[in-house]
From TrEMBL:
GO molecular function term, any single one: oxidoreductase activity
Record's protein name: NAD(P)H-dependent oxidoreductase
Domain Nitroreductase stretches: 8-184
Pfam family, one: Nitroreductase
Stored PANTHER family: NAD(P)H NITROREDUCTASE YDGI-RELATED, NITROREDUCTASE
Keyword Magnesium annotated: no
SUPFAM superfamilies noted in UniProt: FMN-dependent nitroreductase-like
Organism: Pararcticibacter amylolyticus
Superkingdom: Bacteria
Transmembrane intervals: none
Keywords: Flavoprotein, FMN, NADP, Oxidoreductase
Family: Belongs to the nitroreductase family.
């Protein structure tokens, strides 16, 4: 099977049958999510796994009563940092340097640059930036689930403030961004299962550009170069 066949197979499952997925498939999907790239490698988010039925019922109540939340096997909640701080960034880079056997100071210049670029942009911008990183991982999880023939429904239809309160996420410096029920489709009760997959036609979706299409804005190349950082 190719990735394109896997992506054709998957769809945003509207009705799941409650069957449990094997632990090794769950682990595989979570590992794909963990391996996702992120800006500067910060991975400013985590994934919360929930299969507790009573808790799923509560979550459904803040997610427009979408049935997949209680009919899934496991619910993944992607929760991103609510902002960047010196401590958070240092923790990531120090761990990275330890794993690579390099001194912590290797990343000092780069870390200061990130803090000076992100700091003035404020907490909301930072939370949004962190949330975007979580969506890359979310996409990887969706593709990995499809490869494993596990159904998944990407869900943004929930009230983040209420979910965060229920799971006490804000107290820990996190905000929920998106959630992903994993399970098996209930073919006989899912209206979407046999519908044609519809996407923007390629000619409207892909545009090739050359210098002829560019606007001469008079902009000079930036002075700052990321090549100058002492990253090994
Ligand atoms: C970020 C995001 C949020 C979504 N939120 C919901 C949702 O709350 N409920 C739902 O049933 N589907 C949701 N969807 C599914 C989309 O409607 C679906 O992916 C899209 O229509 C394409 O169809 P397909 O995934 O079946 O190919 C969401 C998808 C994404 C990517």
């Amino acid at each position: 099977m190719s990735l394109l066949q896997d992506l054709q197979w998957r769809y945003a499952t509207k009705k799941m049958n409650g069957k449990k997925i094997p632990q090794e498939k769950l682990d595989y999907i979570l590992e794909a999510a963990r391996l996702a790239p992120s800006s500067s490698g910060l991975q400013p988010f985590k994934i919360i796994v929930i299969s507790d039925e009573a808790l799923l019922e509560k979550i459904k109540g803040v997610a427009y009563n979408q049935s997949q939340i209680t009919d899934c096997s496991h619910l993944l909640i992607f929760a991103a940092w609510d902002g960047y701080s010196e401590e958070r960034i240092s923790n990531v880079f120090n761990y990275m340097m330890d794993e690579r056997g390099l001194p912590h100071s290797t990343m000092d210049d780069y870390k200061q640059t990130i803090l000076s670029l992100y700091g003035p942009l404020g907490k909301d911008w930072q939370a949004h930036h962190a949330a975007k990183q979580s969506y890359i991982s979310f996409g990887m999880a969706i593709a990995a689930a499809a490869e494993q023939r596990i159904d998944a429904t990407p869900i943004e239809g929930f009230l983040p403030e209420k979910l965060d309160a229920l799971l006490n996420l804000r107290a820990e410096g996190y905000r929920s961004t998106v959630i992903l029920p994993l399970g098996y489709r209930d073919e006989s009760n899912d209206w979407l299962v046999n519908m044609k997959k519809v996407r923007t036609p390629k000619e409207n979706f892909i545009k090739v550009m050359t210098i002829e299409d560019a606007v001469d804005t008079g902009e000079q190349p930036m002075g700052l170069s990321l090549d100058n950082f002492n990253q090994k």
